[in-house]
Amino acid sequence: MKTSIATVSISGDFEGKLAAIAGAGFDAIEIFENDFLAFDGSPAEVGRMVRDRGLVVSLFQPFRDFEGMPEPFRTRNFDRAERKFDLMGELGTDLMLICSNVSQVSLGGIDRAAADLRELGERAARRGLRIGFEALAWGRHINDHRDAWEIVRRADHANVGIILDSFHTLARKIDVNSIRAIPSEKIFIVQLADAPMIDMDLLYWSRHFRNMPGEGDLPVTDFMRAVAATGYDGYLSLEIFNDQFRGGSAPAISVDGHRSLVYLMDQVKRVEPDIAIELPEMPPRAAVETVAFVEFATSASELPELEQLLTSLGFDKTARHKTKDVALYRQGDIVLVINTDDRGFSSSSHLVHGTNAYAIGLRVDNAAAALKRAIALGAEPFEEPVGPGETALPGIRGIGGSVIYFLDDGEALGQIWETEFEALPVQAASVTAGLTRIDHVAQTVSFDELLTWLLFYTSILDAHKTPMVDIIDPAGVVRSQVVENDTGTLRITLNGAENRNTLAGHFIAENFGSGTQHLAFATQDIFATADALKDRGFVSLSISPNYYDDVEARFGLDPDLTEALKSRNILYDCDDHGEYFQLYSPSYGEGFFIEIVERRGGYRGYGAANAIFRIAALRKHLRPVGMPSK
Predict the structure, then answer these.
(1) Which helix (H) or strand (E) holds 506?
(2) pLDDT bucket at 510, cuts 50 / 70 / 90
(3) Please, are residues 241 and 210 in contact by the beta-carbon 8 Å criterion?
(4) Closest Cα to residue 109, out of 140, 80, 145, 77?
(5) Which is nearest to 542 in space by CA: 567, 569, 566?
(6) Whole-structure pTM over 0.70, yes or no?
(7) How far apart, in Å, are the Cα atoms of 407 and each of 201, 314, 367, 491?
């Protein structure tokens, strides 16, 4: 597979863009003309810079408003093209993109356009160059790749081909299967972009909201399946216009882009195994059986308050590591690891973030395969020195520098708690609070990172993303999306904070980065759990009485049920499939909290309508209780 990206897709100056693109593993760049014009170096110097980075220039673009122009514009266009051909020769590229005409003075007609491209193709051939014609979705006369192909077909010149762009095809909902009839040798390059499904002007949508394949809602995989069916094996190039990307980290966005192309073609290859494009070998997406554990980094001085929280939630300390200051706390199928060791990465994490949930263990079908896939998709592997009798856990770096471990039921990883930990006696009178498993993990990130982590999780794990939901905070809006699998054994809510005044933004600012902001534990009887927690000294988040008057009227609840909810500070939601009950702790430290949930029936949501009431209540408890601030 040959990968390319347009320089317009990322932020920074030209040299910075080259460094980011090369560092992400791309083979080539498209030079967007404005990037070249804003750079002080000569065309020959630019060409050398590209080659010195191990890259090639796959395309020079765009050449606008060419075909179908009346005189004197037509003659002027050919003169302009000759100047660009001179430039291409110095840059060291042989392909120029001609986008369909949008000029108000342009003339229609397939044959007229074909004649213009044929003549330009002759001029290009004399210099050993090629021209590719692309149908803009908002083109005045040509806005459909089928018409663009007919023009190229009638031009009938070896140096004239078509350029296919997923956005221009999919934005107009054009049947992608029409691509299958185009000979592969006439497809000069394929440009790829996804986008969220928004009903707006096509040009504005394209210029501001494109994103990487897999980050949006367009059927880019279907588009690429059609392209692959032609036998095309040339460059796959990202052309992304996105305001957020223009202001983001060029290295990070470049890594996202390369990951998106590998993931896209992996999806295509699994359906069309005989396609011509070659991919690095990688296992399928990892099937997550459960969240095996969550590990907290803390210190000896902060441990008593964390232990008090866990005890009030009904957790028992069941085992201690044989050689490290690490303890296990269990309840139902929930395993929490509390690490107070003053060595290793957990200690470093605590120094930076304070007490925090810095690592998550996922039990998957094959841990080694999951790690191999993650690395093939650009994830950073994580390793720590292993002592005598210890098992090396396969791991990668996650959100905010956290760690994701992969476990499976193999002999070593499946018995890690038994082999590395010594069991502790549990008091016979110990009674749990009825918590059964981890329902979901909620992670808070900067909004600029939201697409990155959605792609990260869905490309590595067998999971999908849900539609974006706006969470209303009194201080602003938080964008939320969920990564989940079909069985509900993996649920990760990702909350993108746009400003530090929101509760989510405060968490990021005060904890020096993105991370896990809350854990949600499941119970089969939230009323019994609430009563048991109260007996253990758990203090629930106090909800306004006004909420319960409204919820009773809104859902038509029985007054006795409303009173049961109100007396225990339990929030309620329902949909067409079932009911949802939520109970929260106050904030600990700078925004971390616990949620307890019960799902009845087929409810699959997360109580988004209750978020505004939960946030208002949490704000009252932000600092007074729990883990000390850093």
Answers:
(1) helix 503-510
(2) confident
(3) yes
(4) 140
(5) 569
(6) yes
(7) 47, 25, 5, 17
Residue ranges of alpha helices (H) inside 103-198 are 110-126, 145-155, 166-171
441 in Cβ contact with 463 (< 8 Å): no
Cis before 273? omega within 30: no
Highest mean pLDDT among 120-124, 342-346, 466-470, 602-606: 120-124
Three-state DSSP state, 329: strand
- Structure token digits, residue 81: 């093209």
Mean pLDDT of 541-548: 96
With both helix axes pointing from N to C terminus, report the angle between 545-555 and 559-568 in degrees, rounded to the nearest 10: 150
* Runs of H (alpha helix) within 324-422: 344-353, 367-376, 416-420
Taking the C-alpha atoms of residue 629 and residue 116, their distance in angstroms, rounded to an integer, is 69
Phi-psi region of 401 (alpha: psi -120 to 50; beta: other; left: phi over 0): left
Cα–Cα distance between 574 and 601 in angstroms, integer?
10
C-alpha 366/C-alpha 189 separation (Å) is: 37
DSSP strands (E only) in 108-253: 130-134, 160-165, 187-192, 235-238
Tell me the one-letter amino acid at 583.
L
Q: Are 496 and 447 in contact (CB under 8 A)?
A: yes
Sorted by sequence, the CB contacts under 8 Å of residue 501 that are 6+ apart come out as: 475, 476
Query: What are the structural domains of the chain?
Result: 2-271 (3.20.20.150), 288-423 (3.10.180.10), 435-619 (3.10.180.10)
